[in-house]
């Protein structure tokens, strides 16, 4: 059991390279979307931190949380940040997971875009988290969003997006919903939190190295773009040599081309090398801080993982004892008979 749990944890962490890069890129896309929506830079900085914190505490991917928040903001929804978290909490308390949250998030953005709760969006929501259907209907009815038959009211366009969002926020911000979203009492929750910690740390390191990496790509692109210009005279020189004009021009052109390639490559490497000290001054303190944060997060998950392990062991032992107890009526006479036979032979 311990080996299985350790293997699952290692596999979960080793597959996170792409998520680290995606999390780093998501911050840039998140900022861009919010800036386009007219949100000030101070609020954006705060949202970058709050979405990171929420992803770290839950099983949800950082990119998914930020996408849900940005889509609601872009559609002009009030309290969009809190509503995105409420949707995540509701998804968790209704029995959903990281995959179903994507569907819930899509329903939220589509409802915001249409301005009312539509049947197809409701069906998509209840397919993802059927456990939320009754509670949401009750909350909307109590708030006066509709009277009579819910389906008919929805088909007639009587339930506005704001009324639906109010119900999601009411249910999603309860203590029980918050606890469900941040719970580490399950293996999925504990491993999800551990993954989030690694992704958070990795994305910070990627952020620090990103200027160097993108700079290297730009330098390489510039070098590759210059190659056709350097090669252009070579064709003419080859034609001259083949037509009997001698190889002098060919040798000169080849020498110039080689010099140009070496010069271009040297310049690109020097430009990158000049950036490296500054980048390392940023990366080293960040890496140390990130490692400290990661270790603290791992230590917080140890009790939950141990409790889960103890639960599995107790369950396994209980099953074993129950199986033995069920066989005792058959086994006991054989054991007694074997013991008596052994005693008679003494």
Short description:
This protein is mainly α and 346 residues long. The chain has helices at 2-14, 17-36, 41-57, 62-74, 80-93, 98-114, 119-128, 133-142, 150-155, 161-172, 175-182, 187-245, 248-344. The chain is 86% helix and 0% strand.
Which spans of ≥5 residues are poorly predicted at pLDDT below 50?
none
What Rg do the Cα atoms give?
31 Å
Continuous helix count? 13
Overall residue-averaged pLDDT value: 76
Helix proportion range: over 70%
**Termini separation:** 44 Å
Sheet/helix structural class: mainly alpha
Helix and strand pattern:
HHHHHHHHHHHHH
| Most strands sheet | none
Q: What is the total tally of β strands?
A: 0
Overall description:
With 346 residues, this protein is mainly alpha-helical. It has helices at residues 2-14, 17-36, 41-57, 62-74, 80-93, 98-114, 119-128, 133-142, 150-155, 161-172, 175-182, 187-245, 248-344.
SSE order and pairing:
Elements: H1 2-14, H2 17-36, H3 41-57, H4 62-74, H5 80-93, H6 98-114, H7 119-128, H8 133-142, H9 150-155, H10 161-172, H11 175-182, H12 187-245, H13 248-344
Helix pairs in contact: 1-12, 2-3, 2-4, 2-12, 3-4, 3-12, 4-5, 4-6, 5-6, 5-10, 5-11, 6-7, 8-10, 12-13
Characteristics of this structure?
flat, mainly alpha
């Amino acid at each position: 059991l311990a080996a299985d749990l350790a293997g699952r944890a290692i596999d979960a962490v080793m597959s996170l390279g792409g998520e680290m890069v995606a999390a780093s890129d998501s911050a840039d896309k998140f900022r861009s979307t919010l800036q386009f929506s007219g949100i000030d830079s101070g609020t954006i900085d705060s949202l970058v931190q709050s979405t990171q914190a929420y992803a770290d505490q839950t099983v949800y991917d950082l990119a998914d949380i930020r996408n849900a928040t940005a889509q609601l903001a872009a559609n002009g929804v009030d309290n969009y940040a809190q509503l995105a978290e409420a949707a995540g909490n509701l998804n968790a308390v209704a029995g959903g997971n990281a995959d179903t949250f994507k569907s819930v998030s899509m329903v939220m953005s589509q409802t915001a875009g249409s301005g009312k709760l539509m049947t197809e969006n409701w069906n998509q929501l209840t397919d993802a988290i059927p456990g939320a259907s009754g509670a949401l209907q009750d909350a909307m009815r109590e708030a006066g969003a509709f009277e009579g038959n819910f389906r008919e009211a929805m088909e007639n366009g009587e339930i506005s997006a704001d009324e639906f969002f109010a119900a999601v926020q009411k249910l999603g911000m309860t203590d029980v919903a918050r606890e469900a979203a941040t719970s580490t009492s399950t293996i999925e929750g504990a491993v999800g939190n551990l993954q989030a910690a690694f992704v958070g740390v990795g994305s910070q390191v990627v952020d620090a190295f990103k200027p160097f990496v993108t700079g290297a790509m730009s330098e390489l692109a510039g070098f590759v773009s210059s190659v056709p210009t350097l090669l252009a005279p070579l064709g003419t020189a080859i034609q001259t040599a083949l037509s009997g004009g001698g190889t002098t021009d060919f040798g000169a052109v080849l020498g110039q081309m080689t010099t140009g390639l070496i010069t271009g490559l040297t310049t690109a490497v020097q430009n990158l090398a000049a950036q490296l000290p500054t980048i390392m001054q940023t990366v080293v303190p960040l890496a140390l801080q990130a490692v400290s944060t990661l270790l603290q997060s791992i230590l917080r998950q140890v009790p939950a993982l141990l409790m889960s392990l103890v639960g599995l062991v107790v369950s396994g032992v209980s099953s074993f004892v129950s199986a033995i107890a069920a066989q005792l009526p058959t086994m006991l006479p054989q054991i007694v008979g074997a013991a008596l036979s052994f005693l008679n032979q003494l």
